[in-house]
Specification:
Rossmann fold, single chain, EC 3.1.1.61, 2 domains, 352 residues, methyltransferase activity, alpha/beta
């Protein structure tokens, strides 16, 4: 279902969806009130929901759509403004699974091409074959139609000096959960986050985390020291890495070409952190489409660091964590609600 007050946008997206194959536009709506009625009637697998609409806007319509058809996966669409970024993050907390930045003008060819590419990627990642048929990793000793993913044995205990987190689709809520569960130990370790987000969104996301955690959380600044008790988010549109300044770890921001079609890229953070922190780094790969983070995780493992990934059953999209698991470089494969506790134990246990 496509929900947008612009007939031009509805028609454009409908054409793109028809070209993908395997998808069908079951209905369109020009406002939130129509969307709620149509969600109950047509029961769409995926809802593309604009924020700014007459009568009932996207934020107000979202919970009503999910009440009418709880199985719908809602992707919020908005133009890049701070207000819309704040609303989009609020929508994620209310049950939307992802967001998509809409170009300011459909006449801007480059912006429209990026919008189309991102839309197609998200639809394919969220398609019926992905999240709804996921299964948990079988426990040891239980029967399974296919072999359970194997994890690496833990190396010797090294006191973690930095927590690295990489995430994409479904990531904001997953990051929130991990950090909230880890909160008692956050004052003892710095946290560096690469979340695939547009520039405007990362600043708002950092502000949201600061409110949630009551700790210093902000977009990273080039050259700033990496200190315990601080959460730094990679700015949208810029790579975030790590280097050593006067022998101490510091943030490095760069404008190099995208890696894995991403900027910021998780691989860059992981790769450079492996060189600076070595075995004292601990990395977490959360829900997200694609394979960003796998190459960097391999570098971390070679350096003796620990890599933890979110399991398939609790991920919105098991692309990024699944890629690490398939590469055989995960030390732990955990449901989302167990990751924070595992990290807390690792930090506390290694420092005794």
């Amino acid at each position: 279902m496509i929900v947008d007050d612009s007939a031009v946008i509805r028609g454009m997206i409908a054409r793109w969806v028809a070209e993908i194959g395997g998808f069908e536009v079951v209905c369109t709506a020009s406002n939130g009130r129509m969307a709620v009625d149509m969600a109950e009637r047509h029961k769409p697998d995926i809802v593309l929901l604009d924020i700014e609409m007459p009568e009932i806007d996207g934020l107000s319509a979202l919970p009503m759509i999910l009440k009418a058809h709880p199985a719908s996966k809602v992707v919020v669409i908005s133009t890049l403004t701070k207000r819309n970024a704040q609303i989009s993050l609020k929508c994620l907390s209310l049950g939307a699974v992802d967001y998509l930045a809409k170009p300011e003008s459909a006449r801007a060819a480059d912006a429209a091409a990026v919008f189309r590419r991102d839309l197609v990627e998200k639809l394919c990642a969220l398609g019926p074959a992905k999240p709804r048929q996921m299964h948990a990793v079988p426990a040891a000793g239980t029967a399974s139609a296919s072999p359970a993913p194997t994890s690496l044995p833990r190396t010797g205990q090294v006191r973690p000096q930095c927590l690295l987190i990489g995430s994409s689709t479904g990531g904001p809520r997953a990051v929130e959960r991990v950090l909230q569960d880890l909160k008692p130990a956050l004052a003892r370790i710095p946290v560096l986050i690469v979340q695939h987000m547009p520039a405007m969104f990362t600043a708002v996301f950092a502000e949201h985390l600061q409110t949630l955690l009551s700790l210093p959380c902000r977009e990273a600044r080039d050259g700033e020291a990496i200190v315990a008790g601080t959460v730094l988010v990679a700015p949208g549109g810029r790579h975030m890495g790590v280097n050593a300044v006067a022998g101490k770890p510091a943030i490095r921001l760069g404008d190099d070409p995208p890696e894995n079609f991403c900027r910021p890229a998780v691989d860059i953070l992981f790769r450079e952190a492996a060189s600076v922190f070595g075995a004292s780094a601990v990395a977490v790969v959360l829900t997200g489409m694609g394979s960003d983070g796998t190459a960097g995780a391999r570098d971390l493992v070679r350096a003796g660091a620990t890599v933890i990934v979110q399991d398939e059953a609790s991920s919105i999209v098991w692309g990024m964590p699944g890629s690490v698991v398939k590469a055989g470089i995960a030390h732990e494969i955990l449901p989302l609600d167990a990751i924070g506790r595992s990290l807390q134990g690792l930090i506390a246990g290694a420092s005794r």
